[in-house]
């Protein structure tokens, strides 16, 4: 399964490092990544492949949310299907 | 992969605009639980529900975690109990309600619907016992919801039942008078009830349905309102297009969740009910959508036209997005459950008469309206008859969920908290309807029901 990770909040140093550290720990491959900074609000969207993941989805979700809390940003992981369902005919 | 801006839009809808799956409701047929022995029948009912819905809450929660879209309620609807209990020699069906309640507790759902009778053409002995058992059933259980379908376009309106229901609604309220008469909030009186409605309190599992099925009810008034806010200068037809596109996206989220959860539970996916179902939370109101279209206060002139457009556009967007749209699908206008509606009622901008007009063009009826506790039973019956007539003639579902707040009157409020919210007591026209109501009999089906 592929999933989309979104990180939203005030820009700071080390955001991508903190997220990708967790992903590499659990053998999760990053397939695409893009980011913008608009009026100091950092938004990152990351497409990841969970097929080799050694971590259960809900556990991974919890770990990412915890990192979000530590750095004061909102981090989400959602199944890619929800975005495809809502935005493609 | 979906585009960057689309991903951010979805995240914003969930995060800021209250997009959610309002309910996943498992419909369970109890026809194979029929037994002439009451005790055996109750045991079979409990076992079937507990077995069928064992993993419902777990799978729904798992899906919510994966997609990030909250699933607010997990519920069950069952075959109308009058059909099941009618085979026994029981003279009171409240014990069946207790069985449903225990089964609901065991599987962890918050409501179970189907303590119901379908009587548009008349009552069977089982229907009669069930209707008389409703007040006790609703006041001795926590999770059970009841409904009575007393009219249809094909059959007309059962006025004998209309007369009874005024009394039953009042009794439900009286038995729960210490709790703002909340008993009446769990009873819906329908005309043209649908068999696949996933929303409470009116859900039941019709006899034309499969053994088990999963329905989904999607909501998102906040998402529609924000979409309209961004288009201040749009014409009405342009607004309709925006609502259609928004409804499409919301429905697709529900379709994905519904089909996936059904698949994991190993049961068929039933229908997707796309209803703009408000909650008392700020930013989750249907009344505020109407106001966003340019009506100063919901209930003012223009409200019915705005609601008609909203309801139609929601249906059009939803139908393209799902393989099977059903249930009620449209806009709900419950008073106590809608922050904007509560505000309009408090300030006298909306009346029961205006709400009645609005029910001609939206998906349900007079819903969660608190009225003075001393309103005569016959007046409640007459309001039910008016609402049923709108449904019968317009070939649509209508319903009444009126709450006579015992010990309270206009100027007071009832407060339930949670999804049920709070409501100011609305004035009722007290012109005497007792002679009309006590005539009984039937209102014949309208001429346009003869389509064969």
From TrEMBL, chain A:
CDD domains: ACT_1ZPV (cd04872). Gene3D superfamilies: 3.30.70.260. Coiled coil: none annotated. It comes from the Bacteria. Residues 4-78 form the ACT domain. It holds the Pfam family ACT_6. InterPro entries: ACT-like_dom_sf, ACT_dom, UPF0237/GcvR_regulator, UPF0237_ACT. Belongs to the UPF0237 family. PANTHER family: UPF0237 PROTEIN MJ1558 (PTHR34875:SF6). This is UPF0237 protein FYJ52_09640.
From TrEMBL, chain B:
InterPro entries: UPF0210 (IPR007841). CDD domains: RNR_PFL_like_DUF711. It holds the Pfam family DUF711. It comes from the Bacteria. Homodimer. Belongs to the UPF0210 family. This is UPF0210 protein FYJ52_09645. It comes from Pseudoramibacter porci.
């Amino acid at each position: 399964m592929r999933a989309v990770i979104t990180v939203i909040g005030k820009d700071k140093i080390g955001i991508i490092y903190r997220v990708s550290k967790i992903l590499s720990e659990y053998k999760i491959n990053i397939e695409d990544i893009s980011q913008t900074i608009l009026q100091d609000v950092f938004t990152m969207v990351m497409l990841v492949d969970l097929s080799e993941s050694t971590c259960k989805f809900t556990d991974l979700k919890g770990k990412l949310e915890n990192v979000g809390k530590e750095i004061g940003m909102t981090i989400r992981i959602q199944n890619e299907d929800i975005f495809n369902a809502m935005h493609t005919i | 992969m979906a585009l960057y801006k689309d991903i951010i839009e979805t995240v914003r809808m969930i995060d800021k605009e209250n997009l959610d799956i309002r309910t996943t409701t498992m419909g369970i047929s109890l026809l194979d639980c029929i037994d002439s022995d009451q005790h055996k029948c109750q045991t079979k009912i409990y076992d079937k529900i507990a077995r069928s819905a064992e993993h419902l809450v777990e799978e729904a929660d798992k899906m919510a975690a994966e997609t990030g879209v909250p699933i607010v309620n997990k519920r069950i609807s069952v075959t109308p109990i009058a059909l099941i209990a009618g085979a026994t020699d029981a003279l009171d069906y409240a014990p069946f309600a207790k069985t449903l309640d225990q089964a609901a507790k065991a599987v962890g759902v918050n409501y179970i619907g189907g303590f119901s009778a379908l009587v548009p053409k008349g009552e069977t002995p089982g229907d009669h016992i069930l209707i008389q058992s409703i007040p006790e059933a609703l006041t001795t259980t926590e999770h059970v919801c009841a409904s009575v379908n007393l009219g249809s376009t094909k059959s007309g309106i059962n006025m004998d039942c209309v007369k009874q229901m005024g009394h039953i609604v009042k009794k439900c309220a009286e038995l729960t008078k210490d709790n703002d008469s909340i008993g009446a909030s769990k009873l819906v009186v329908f005309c043209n009830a649908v068999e696949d409605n996933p929303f409470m309190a009116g859900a039941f599992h019709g006899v034309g349905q499969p053994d088990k099925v999963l329905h989904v009810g999607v909501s998102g008034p906040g998402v529609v309102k924000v979409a309209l806010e961004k288009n201040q200068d749009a014409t009405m037809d342009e607004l309709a297009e925006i609502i259609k596109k928004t409804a499409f996206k919301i429905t697709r989220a529900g379709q994905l969740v519904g089909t996936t959860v059904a698949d994991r539970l190993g049961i068929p996916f039933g229908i997707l009910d796309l209803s703009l179902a408000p909650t008392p939370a700020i930013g989750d109101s249907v009344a505020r959508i109407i106001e966003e279209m340019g009506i100063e206060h919901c209930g003012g002139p223009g409200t019915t036209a705005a609601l008609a457009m909203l309801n139609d556009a929601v249906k059009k967007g939803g139908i393209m997005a799902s393989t099977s749209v059903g249930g009620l699908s449209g806009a709900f206008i419950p008073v106590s459950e809608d922050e904007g509606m509560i505000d309009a009622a408090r300030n006298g901008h909306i009346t029961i008469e205006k709400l009645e007009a609005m029910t001609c063009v939206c998906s349900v009826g007079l819903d969660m309206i608190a009225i003075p506790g001393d309103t005569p039973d016959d007046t409640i019956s007459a309001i039910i008859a008016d609402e049923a007539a709108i449904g019968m003639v317009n070939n649509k579902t209508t319903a009444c969920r009126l709450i006579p707040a015992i010990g309270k009157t206009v100027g007071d409020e009832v407060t339930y908290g949670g999804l049920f919210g709070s409501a100011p007591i609305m004035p009722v026209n007290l012109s005497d309807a007792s002679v009309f109501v006590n005539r009984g009999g039937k209102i014949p089906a309208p001429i346009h029901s003869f389509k064969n």
